[in-house]
Amino acid sequence: MGRSARRDAELSGLPDHALLSIIRIPEAAKISPWWLMLRRVAYALLLTLVVTLIVYFDRGGYSEELTFIDALYYSTVSLTTVGYGDITPVTQEARLLNVLVITPFRIAFLVLLVGTTLSVLTEESRRALQIQRWRKRMRNHTVVVGYGTKGRSAVAALKADGVPANQIVVIDTDQAALDAASNDGLVTVRGTATKADVLRIAGVQRARAVVVAPNLDDTAVLVTLSVREIAPRAMIVASVRESENQHLLEQSGADSVVISSETAGRMLGLATVTPSVVEMMEDLLSPDEGFSVAERPVTEDEVGSNPRHLADIVLGVVRSGELYRIDSPEAETVEPGDRLLYIRRVFSEDVKN
C-alpha cells in the first residue's frame, strides 16, 4: 500500500486538531488580522503614555530629576523589561507606585506583545474543539457530494424546504467549490467521496440523506456503493448524465436517480413546441419564487377525503413510502399517515425565512 493510500485509510483515526485543513465549519465574519494588530499597537502606546504620565507626575521620587522625555524613556525600558538601571525609584512612594501600578501594566504590555502568537494558538484550539463537538453532535443531516451546478441547485432546494444550512455537509476536492459552500454557510469536508474515511468524517453513517452529484457517472456509482455500505438506512439520491447508467446506480443502492441529460433534452424539446410549459416547469423547480412542488402530511380533517377536492392542487399521495399518482385507484381517498405531494405557492417571506 502506498503512502498516500495509507494516509487516506487513517483519516478517520486522526485527532481533531489534525482535521483543521479538512473540515471547515462556517463562522461569523472575522475581524481583519491587520486591524487586530493595529488595535494591539494602540493599546501598547496607550499603556506607555499612561505610565509616562504617572512617572512624570511623581518625578521627584526617582534617582534624578526627570523631564517628560526622561519619563517616556523610563516607561519604555520598564514596560519592555529591558531595565537599564540608569533611572530608579528611590522614595517609598515611587517604589510602591511601581509595585502596584507599573508592574501590572508591564505584565499587560507583555501580553500585548505575545498576543498574536497566543491568538493563533487559541484559535487553533478553539477550532479543534468546535470540530470535536460537531463530529459528536451531528445527526440526521444531509451530505452533498460535489458542489458543482447540480450540487448547488440541490442545496438551494434543501434550503427552500426549510433545511438549515448548518445541517448540510458538502464533500468536494475543489477548494474554490468548498470556499463557495462555506460562504453559503455550509459545513465542508475536503476529500474524495469515493474514500470511505472521507465519508465517515462527513458523518455519512449518521446522515438522513446523501445527495450524490459528481461530474462523472462512474464516480457517482463508486460514491453510491461506498455510501450504501457505510449508511444502510440513509436515503441516497444520485444524479447521472446518461440513462444507461441508471440501473448501475440503482444496483449500487441509490433510492432515487435523476438523469440530467434526458431531463434537459425533454425541456429543450418542449421549448420548441410549447415554451410556456417549459417556463412553468422551471417555475415549479425553482425554490426562490412562484410555485414549487412540495410534500406535507395530511391533516385530521382531510382524512377520508378525495385529494382532488382539497384546497391544494395535489399531484400524488405518498403512502408507506410508495407514491400513488392522483389518477390511481389507491389515491382516491386520503388515509391517516399519508403525505400529499402538492403545488405550493412560494412567497418572498417564505424564502427569507
UniProtKB/TrEMBL annotation:
One of its GO terms (biological process) is potassium ion transport. It is found in: Cell membrane. It comes from the Bacteria. The chain crosses the membrane at residues 40-57, 99-121. Its main location: membrane. InterPro entries: K_chnl_dom (IPR013099), NAD(P)-bd_dom_sf (IPR036291), RCK_N (IPR003148), Trk_Ktr_HKT_K-transport (IPR050721). Pfam families: Ion_trans_2 (PF07885), TrkA_N (PF02254). One of its GO terms (cellular component) is plasma membrane. Residues 139-259 form the RCK N-terminal domain. Keywords: Membrane, Transmembrane, Transmembrane helix. It is a multi-pass membrane protein. This is RCK N-terminal domain-containing protein. The lineage of its organism: Bacteria, Bacillati, Actinomycetota, Actinomycetes, Mycobacteriales.
